[in-house]
Protein 1
Amino acid sequence: MSAAAAKATLSATGRRKTSVARINMTEGTGAITINGRSFEDYLPTLQLQNTVLAPFQQAGLAKKFDLRISVKGGGLNSQAGAIRHAAARALTQFDSELRGELKPHGFLRRDPRMKERKKAGQPGARKNFQFSKR
């Protein structure tokens, strides 16, 4: 068996709102590609990049893994949250001891907040049509 085949590939799924992220994690130098594009190209702001890297920094494994990420649905902020969720799940597969370190920060919790559905007889989820007394 070759050295490349001996590398374990960990995969996990993360979700937030309507975004779904699938992550393939292998030990490496810290290269990250999202939907075939570079990390900095896909997530242009430092805030979004820090959201994705937060579980690795918390675990102290910042540049130890190469990530291949496929993400769809939602906006960039939601996608970054889904990637963070998937990364934290993959890290717990790598080492179950990291669970105690990641869980208090909420990285393993799926954010339950969703967009509220539009109700019948109203223009939006909570908005009502204008009321006219006379």
Protein 2
Amino acid sequence: MVKNYSGLILLLLAGLILFSGYLFYQTQQEANGQRPPAQTVAVKTTHADTRPLVRQVSALGTGLANNSVELIASSSEYLTYLNVIEGRPVSQGEVIARLNDVEQRARVAELQAQLTEQQRQLERLKNLAATQATAQSMLDEQQTRVNTTLAQLESAESRLRQMTIRAPFNGVLGLRSVSQGAYVNSGSVITTLDDISRLRVEFNVSERFIAELAVGMPIAISNVAYRQVEFNGEIKAIDPRLDPVTRSVRVHGMIDNQDLRLRPGMLLDVRVTLDNQDTLMVPENALVPLQNRQYVFKVGEDNKVTQVEVTIGERIPGWVEILTGLTQGDEIIIEGVQKVRTGVTISRVE
């Protein structure tokens, strides 16, 4: 039993002597300026490079018809003709409806006959006045009668035209509100007419973007009804006034809509492209935040790492703009940043 303990003690003493010798050797090497080679750290790297950066503003908008009116009855009368087929395209000037206009036509015919007779009398008096066979006052009175009848005729013809309701512009008819033969009151809505070959888009933009907004800027539109389709247009007008409550400005865009897929009243997702330029960018996972600053690990000569402070700009999914701290082509670590520090030697992995 004593022999076993003696052997164990001798073994421990031998190990202690060897460990002391190793420490002495390391101390001597450091004293002579010789350090053992540092262990490399496996990381994944990439290079800072320029990429297109598109700055956009997103907003919710509402679709509006480019032109929109309600076609109404100008007088209280029976509806003798109705040419309304819901959803049918119509051309400017096409007859949509006609009210009973018998009285107006009779009045126009009466005044036309009266005017013809008065003009004949006026010509006769002019001939007599040329030979001084009539007084100038009679000629003036007849001229006044002609002018009065002519004004009455123009008024009657205007009322007659109002009995026929025509499309004021090219568009699509809405739902009809009356039936043919019905008695309608003055101001009654017969149907609606919308020009949706081009759709106006109304949306609000925060005041902090006003300095960057301009007429003609491109916009992109999407809607839940057409999930995979993007409609493109441009800004057509910017309200000179801001909403004092929301501190936003109202903007109108214009979208080509010849296929009539978009409709007035739709809720639309609007994206305004403010800027599109190439900027220096790095992957977002290369950043190492420390308090209020951002750092990256830059790989230099001999694969040694240096921690570099950077100033960042805009962010897009997965990428961040670098304003200062890096130049194009600099190699940086994007995976394994937790394992490195300044001065560490790295090895690259795929």
